[in-house]
## 1
Amino acid sequence: MREETAALSGLLPEELLSHLHLEKKYRAKQIFKWIADGARAFEAMTNLSREERERFGATERIFSTTVAQTLRDPDGTVKLQIALNDGNAVETVLLTDREGRKTACVSCQVGCPMGCAFCQTGHIGFARNLTAGEIVEQFFHLEDAVGRLDNIVFMGMGEPMLNLAAIKKTIEILCHVDGRALSRRRITISTSGIVEGIRRLADEGPDVRLAVSLTTANEALRRKLMPVTEKNPMGNLRAAIAYFNEKTGKRVTLEAALMGGVNTGDAYAKEIAEFARGLNVHVNLIPWNPVSTLPFETPSNAETKRFFSALERFGLNVTLRTRRGEKIGGACGQLGKSAARTADEDDDY
Ligand code: SAH
Ligand code: SF4
């Protein structure tokens, strides 16, 4: 049986150099570039010697994951079910906007420990963090399926701030000039509101965009919907966003999943406006995507419009996320049904 080794997808050129015991630096760069350019077998790496191709082919794996299923929604959304080598699975989604820009929505954990009441992923439990290689591979599997991608958002399964080290490495690999050379401006990390993570991101980078899943600015309601609020109260969250604004000069997106009759009242609009006052933010509304086992409803168009207008009247910059990918269970908050073998686990956040 082949011995388990780290897949090459999660290694930087200098790591490939030592891992493959290469003598020449440029060889490591060549292999790194081949992977970014879509080579999925050593035979395809035509500038390596036959001997090297055969030797690496016998002992090394380029990827550790495989695409178990590809689902395509008529609206252009594509969802990949990705099988990990331990029997777990995660999902990755391609979103295409009106201008045709392609965004990869990647997962960073198997399941999620945060337990948000309205989210499918939050209800399947948590198994483990993904490695950088497993995250990088989601991006490359999508590019193999749909062509070159423009953006990447960490808005799939899992809480990015609980796996920041792997995300940092993923970004280093995807942005590396000798590889895929993705621009950092095209990367967004979305958090449920882990204050320490937001501050660390501001202090240490990576220098990417930040989205915070606010959902509501009403503390009592947010505690019920998002247990993260207990250890990360609204005042601290607001201060962390202000710190991020100040430190990075970047505007932050406040995401709000809207549940009919739950967080759409006029008073809630006012509370979001109060929370946002003095912050450099914009608000993105996401009408709740149905999860059959959860006791929420998608708001009517009129209800969504009313909330949108109320926020605008308070002077906020507001956008509405178009509903996409529902037919394939690929919309925000719907990921995870296919993910196997997740186990509940206590987590300290
Ligand atoms: N865990 C991170 C990123 C993934 S969730 C976070 O929570 O920010 C991506 C977004 O989908 C979050 O803004 C979340 O609030 C939202 N969301 C979760 N379930 C949803 C649902 N059923 N319908 C619409 N949005 C949902
Ligand atoms: Fe986890 Fe985000 Fe879902 Fe909350 S909304 S359970 S943080 S994936």
## 2
Amino acid sequence: MTTPGQHPTIFPEVTAIPAAYRQERIDQRCYLIDGELRSWDGPCQEVLSPICVATAAGPQRVNLGSFPLLGEKEALAALAAAVKAYDQGRGVWPTLPVSGRIAAVAAFAAAMRGRRDEVVRLLMWEIAKSRGDAEKEFDRTVAYIDDTIAALKELDHASSRFVRADGVVGQIRRAPLGVALCLGPFNYPLNETFTTLIPALIMGNTVVFKPPRPGTLLFGPLIKAMRDTFPAGVVNAIYGSGRATIPPLMSSGAIDVFAFIGTSRAANTLQKLHPRPHRLRLVLGLEAKNPAIVLADADLDLAVSECLAGALGFNGQRCTALKIVFVERPLAEAFVPRLAAVVAALRCGLPWDAGVAITPLPEEEKPAYLEELLADALALGATVVNPGGGVADGSLVTPALVYPVRAGMRLYSEEQFGPVIPVVPFDDPALPLDYVAASPYGQQASLFGRDPARLATFLDPLVHQVCRVNLNGQCQRGPDVFPFTGRKDSAVGTLSVADALRSFSIRTMVAAKETPANREILQRMLRERQSTFLSTDFLF
Ligand code: G3H
């Protein structure tokens, strides 16, 4: 199959799509506000898949359907519902005992499990995630919910005792903050939306969320489950353009937590709109340009396979992806051709193809952007080492290993977020360390080598620049019990199963001088279960 006048295309004729993976058009018209699925008859956004079909005019993106383009009015109605449900902390949800909130979240997780096939298929169609990765994203998200429930029980156990100091006795718990606005990214539309939304909810906040674009249709089956499992107004889902819906929410001053995974530029603009910035808790996951530093004594096979997985997992579209590789000169001669060979062997194809590694890119402008980055590097003396690398076929770009990259090339500093691996040879160990120190980002780094003493000379300065150094391994967020955060323009706040519960709550206590009268009051309150906050019950 060939694109007219060009190279072969991976995209099939529409009739050649396997029956098991065909996707019916979805015209989503409902959004969730105040416990109701409201129907929309206003303007809608057509959804074009990154997956193309071959036509006489070349590859054309498949039209998957449409979703509502809500505006300011609907966004503010969603906010009003969340504000009403929170009711200044007196609403049903924030005053529900922890066990009640856990039961609702567990019921939602159970309902969600039943929608696995639909959601996985939509992940494949909306963002071209391979079937295996889409299944992983779904299963990891459900596991995250289960683990969050377990972590909240732990937290509750730790807070169910009284503390006594200097004649004062008190109980310290974590209380919700208010209304949370949760916005996830297109690359992990389900997982990264839910890793803020679920902790926000389970801690007693009410939520407005907007699914990412692309990655919207897959929330259709889930908002019905949300309506059925949470009290009215506790979770509200809006659709549409971020520009039309998010600024009015932030300007209202009624958002208490802004959980956003995206660019620091957008985060800066949006957080500035809040009229009372000190009342706004920020939970941000932003850009990164995580480096791998491969020392001369590194295990070559291991470094190659980890750099490959780290740089090209989901086409390099992970915030944690390795986006630049520094290799010490004596090893570069062996490392570069080895890495190029495995890059060249990767299978480019469609999400349902067995063994596929590289799939089409959801961002429409990405192939042209990557082409610009490659042209710039090539003009400045680098080459694409793997034959056929960096070639666009509609929305698909074949992976490219670019070498030697150096300061001054755009690939050296820009976050490509795509299937391109810039490799920089170095002689002076200060080069990669200075790079990391000067970088506007500070999420993670990978360090490959065998000599502990030498590794320590890199590791120690790196831990003051990034928040996780991966020794002889790729950068990654998981396991989800580990803290996921970053310095500089990479993050604000920490997420992990347990840390997220803290990010969406505040330590609050009830304290009293330990007089006989106060002791009697507290004992009766506990014995007769008169307060939800003050309780020494053990949550099983
Ligand atoms: O895009 C950022 C994700 O949180 C990365 O997660 O390292 O598990 O792919 P991951």
